[in-house]
Amino acid sequence: MAEENNKATGCPLPLSNYPRILLAHGGGGRLMHQLIDEIFRASFDNPDLETGHDGAILGWSGNKLVFTTDSYVVDPLFFPGGDIGMLAVYGTVNDLAMCGARPRYLSASFIIEEGLPVETLRMVAESMHRAAVEAGIAIVTGDTKVVEHGHGHGVFINTAGAGSLEHDRYIHPSKVVPGDVVIINGDIGRHGIAVMSAREGMQFETEIESDLAPLAATVARLMENGVEIHCLRDLTRGGLATGLIEIAQTGKVSVVIEEKSIPVSGPVRGACEMLGYDPLYIANEGRFVCLVPEKDSGRTIEIMRSLSWPATIIGRVGEGQLGLVTMIGAIGAERIIDMLSGEQLPRIC
Amino acid sequence: MKYLDEFRDPIAARAMLEKISVAASREWTIMEVCGGQTHSILKNGLDRLLPRRINILHGPGCPVCVTPIEMIDRAIEIAQRPGVILCSFGDMLRVPGSRRDLLSVKAEGGQVRTVYSPLDALEMARKNRDLEIVFFAIGFETTAPVNAAAVYQAATEHLDNFSILSAQVLVPPAIEVILNSEDCRVNGFLAAGHVCAITGYSDYEELVENYHTPFVITGFEPLDILQGIYMTVVMLEEGRPAVNNQYRRVVRRDGNPEAKRLMGKVFERVDRKWRGLGNIPGSGLGLRAEYAAFDAARKFGLEQYEKEEAGECISGLILQGLKKPFDCPAFSERCTPEHPLGATMVSSEGACAAYYHYSLTEFQRIKKNRNE
Question: Does A261 touch chain B if contact means CB atoms closer than 8 Å?
């Protein structure tokens, strides 16, 4: 396909079918989705995988278990507002929460690079313990492997989480209907910019801290208060834009968001302006969207704000073209929000 | 955010749109030359908010899009050599050469690094004297002074393991190609603010004199662009073409003399091939003879490398304002955002992709009329 494309064009276009894995295949955009669809989904084919959810909901004898896993390869290991250990706990806890589950048990596997100071590993483990206590989850099993120097990046962590589903509600993009309100729990883009500034040694006027946070308690509070949640999605790699596109495509609905309502802090906006990044695509680790019927939107915001989240309505589910996310810009024109074809790259001038 | 929010104010933007509407008594076609302005126009939907009498065309101002295929092949060839690190701006990595792109070379183990400035590459050369460090120098007049500074510094420090692959191009010669075309439809230009911040605008005064076409040096925020369009329309309506400077907060008539001096010291004008536009005499910047040791094409024996481009994509014509996306036989059929044939359909903010997203219904109506 790439060969055909190149023969047929007189000007540059990004390739879409690469014979080798690129960093962009892990970026959360179109390439990663292509990889999942064409390799993993095709090979592991089964109905539980097909739901396209943050975790699999498994049931037997009347009980329902939610099961999920994620790997963490962040560079650097410690960044403003968090570290890889905290990320490995909260990230998996949040995936369970997005399915409406109560987090119960966590596994932790470590792939450690030869030469890593033991003290660094101790700091990561202690951070994981603190995060697990805060998120109400127990780390009950694990694994340790060491790879040769130069074959890892300090430490990679994989966590798998199990949670209990203690209600009959099915929280999933397929439950989203026109008229639903899209609510976000805070400003976007902090995590991606915080990690990048630590990695690249960039100094901004104000230090930007990651938004890393556990979300299960917030989801639990919404459910206890009877909010009719249709869909939840944490906005990690690929950011708000990718999260909403996934919901629109899986749920076969259209979503319209308003640029002026989307909270972006001044320092994050400034960093994005400087680098030519769009905050809509920057990774977060403590932000999620909650899609609820109009009747429940006020209560949702009230509950979130009572938990110190500066929650706000950013858009609505519409009747338009299915699978499409559009944004009404500050000046009033509407534009399509598309999935990134690879990683966001800094601009030239 | 101070100095940005003022230029994105919706109330002021609507007032400016109204002023344009009142000022334009007839249809005018205006081209913005810079890719940054194209991005801003489409991102903010200005093309759809403007009165229908104002037709906006997108010019050849994206340095990534206009870098010819043979230059990318040269970069790929260099990146595959042992003992070499090729440094590039990130945007360039996914643009394919004749067979593959720099991202693939990197995935296969080639030493390709993303940098934010040629000075980062220079620093790499200082720290790795046993390796050859090559900077892929693409861009317009905006980036050329820093490239010149990097070469000048390397020469001063005798860093003989540093070189640049120069693919730098100049804006005014490309504008002249557009103006010289028999089919030129452009009535006025928005000139790129960042380019003029370096060069000033005496070149544009010459163009006005020779072609009787107005130019407005314009910034990149929505209000900058709307004001630039308004100033162009006023000149067109009055029939008095000139160079006006909308971007006074950044641009002076003489530009940045120190930057120009450094550019002139290190670089000289050379003929340069543009992707989609072909060879344009005097449109590129090559290293002067005294800095030839820092020319990567020469150093790696790739000066004679030529590659013909083939294909059915008409992005080159679209970028010159000679064709509209609707004129392309492949539009919306063999060329869609999911399966793009060319640069202007690649991103949702490219000209063809924007037409596809926002005007597909209109296109289907036009096509139906054509067939009847």
Answer: no
- pLDDT tens across B37-91, in order? 887 887 888 988 999 999 998 888 878 778 888 898 999 999 999 999 999 987 7
**CB atoms near residue B22 (< 10 Å):** 11
- Inter-chain residue contact A10 with B276, CB threshold 8 Å: yes
Tell me the residue type at A330. Answer: A
Nearest chain A Cα distance for residue B240, angstroms: 31
Phi, psi of B74, deg, nearest 5: -60, -45
Q: Where are the beta strands (DSSP E) in chain B?
A: 28-32, 54-58, 84-88, 112-114, 132-139, 162-168, 188-192, 215-218, 243-245, 267-274, 278-287
Give the pLDDT confidence score for residue B99 in this predicted structure. Answer: 79
- For chain B, helix, strand, coil in percent to 5 are 50, 20, 35
- How far apart are the C-alpha atoms of B369 and B146, rounded to whole Å? 52
Nearest-Cα residue of chain B relative to residue A345: B90
pLDDT at A2: 35
The alpha-helical segments, DSSP class H, found in chain A are: 2-7, 30-35, 42-44, 47-50, 84-98, 118-135, 190-200, 216-224, 239-251, 266-275, 294-306
**A349/B99 touch (CB, cutoff 8 Å), yes or no:** no
More confident call, A164 vs A335: A164
A–B: how many Cβ contacts below 8 A? 167
Q: Do A22 and B104 touch (CB under 8 A)?
A: yes
CA distance B255 to B257: 6
Give the type of residue at A175: K
CA distance to partner chain B, nearest, from residue A225 (Å):
38
Mean pLDDT of chain B: 88
Q: For residue B135, which of B108, B155, B116, B158 has the smallest C-alpha distance? A: B116
What distance in Å separates residue A15's CA from the closest CA in chain B? 7
CB contact under 8 A, A18 and B312: no
Is the pLDDT at B371 greater than 80? The verdict is: no
Q: Which of A20, A266, A348 sits opposite B91 (nearest CB)?
A: A348
Q: Where is A232: in which H helix or E strand?
A: strand A231-234
Give how far B109 is from chain A: nearest CA, Å.
Answer: 11
Instruction: For A281-305, write each residue's pLDDT tens digit.
Output: 999 999 999 999 999 999 999 999 9
Closest Cα partner for A56 from A159, A140, A213, A172?
A172
**Would you state the structure tokens that stand for residue B356, as one six-digit string?**
């596809």
Of A12, A273, A336, the CB nearest to B275: A12
Complex ipTM over 0.90: no
> A46 or A139: which carries more pLDDT confidence?
A139
Is the Cα torsion angle A305, A309, A314, A317 positive or negative in sign? negative
